[in-house]
Design brief:
Two copies of one chain form a homodimer. Chain A is built from five helices and three strands. By secondary structure, chain A is an alpha+beta fold. Chain A binds a DNA duplex through helix 4.
DNA sequence: GAGATAGTCAAGTGATCACTTCACTATTGC
DNA sequence: GCAATAGTGAAGTGATCACTTGACTATCTC
C-alpha cells in the first residue's frame, strides 16, 4: 500500500479546488458577476467540457452555484467555500496569538 | 497533448499545500508552537521522510520556516503564506461587493 | 570510539488530476 | 422541421502526488 492521506471533508476540497489556476480564475471571474459555461471557457483556453468538470468540483465544495435557464447554465459565486477557508485561517491566527499571549505571560511573570 | 494548466506562482502553491490534510495539520500544529520533524510526524501516522517532504513544500511557499539546531530541525509557522491567501479572498470579496454596489446604483437610478 | 538518535536522499509505486476527443442530448430561432 | 447553439457523459492519457523503503550522513551521549 502506498498509504491513504486520511479522509477528505469539505475544507480539503475547498483548498484543493482553489489550488488550480483555472478554477481560481473561474471564481474570480464570477465574483464580478454571473456567467454561462461557454463564457467562462472563452478566456481560459480549455474546452467547455473541462470547464464543466471544474464547475462540478467548485459546486461540490460551495464555491459556485448554478442553475439552468433553457439550454444555458448560469453560474454565480457562492460565499460558503470562501468562508470555510477564511475561518480556518482565523482559527490558525487564534492559535498563534494565544501562544504569543501565553509567552507574554511567562515573560511577564519573571 | 493533455494540456498545461498555466503557470504556477506562489498563490497556487499555497492553496495546493493547504489542500492536503497532513500539511494542514502540520501548519495548525505549528501555530501552537515550534516543533521538530519527528515530533510533527508522531501523530500523523506517516514516516519522517514524508513529513520532511511536506515541510520542504510548506517552506517553499512561505507557510513554514525552519532552522537546524544540532541534529534537530526546529520548525515554526510563517505568516507569509496565510497572508497571501487571505489577500486573495479579500480581493474576491472586493470584486463581489463592487459589483453589488454597481447593481445598487443601477437600481437606484430608476 | 560505539551506539543510539534525528534527519536526508534516491528511487519506486499506485492513485488522482487536469485535461482531451467523440458522441450524445436539450434548447433555440429561422 | 432543421440547423446552429449550449451543455453533458464516457473513456482515455500523460503528469503529478503522497506516500513508501532502504541506504546514508550528521550529531549527541555514554
Amino acid at each position: 500500500m502506498a498509504a491513504a492521506p486520511a479522509i477528505s471533508p469539505p475544507i480539503d476540497r475547498v483548498f484543493h479546488a482553489l489550488g488550480d489556476p483555472s478554477r481560481r480564475a473561474i471564481v474570480e471571474r464570477l465574483a464580478r458577476g454571473p456567467l454561462s459555461v461557454s463564457r467562462l471557457a472563452e478566456p481560459l483556453g480549455i474546452t467547455v467540457t473541462a470547464v464543466g468538470q471544474h464547475l462540478r468540483l467548485l459546486e461540490s465544495c460551495g464555491l459556485v452555484a448554478s442553475e439552468k435557464h433553457g439550454r444555458t447554465r448560469v453560474c454565480r459565486i457562492e460565499a460558503a467555500g470562501l468562508i470555510t477557508i477564511a475561518q480556518w485561517i482565523a482559527h490558525c491566527r487564534e492559535l498563534w496569538e494565544t501562544r504569543l499571549d501565553r509567552l507574554g505571560d511567562v515573560l511577564g511573570e519573571e
